[in-house]
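During the no-cost extension, the postdoctoral fellow (Dr. R.K.) reprocessed legacy sequence entries with the updated structure-token encoder. One reprocessed record is reproduced below for audit purposes.
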Amino acid sequence: MIHNTIAPHMVIRPRLTDHFGIHKSQAELDFVIQFLDEDLPLYVDPEFASGRIKQQRC
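Re-encoded structure tokens follow.
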């Protein structure tokens, strides 16, 4: 007989933080906590990436 049970320590849809054992909320981190089974569309500004534009703090 096959039992469809999930161990209590298993996460159904693990996030990046679950995988690396980071125990912080999204508000405490400066990056997006993404699900490991999804892609996240991302735009990188080529001017910023080239270093011609300096990062400004708000």
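The longest helix spans residues 16-20. The CA atoms of residues 44 and 50 lie 10 Å apart. The remaining legacy entries will be reprocessed before the final report is submitted.
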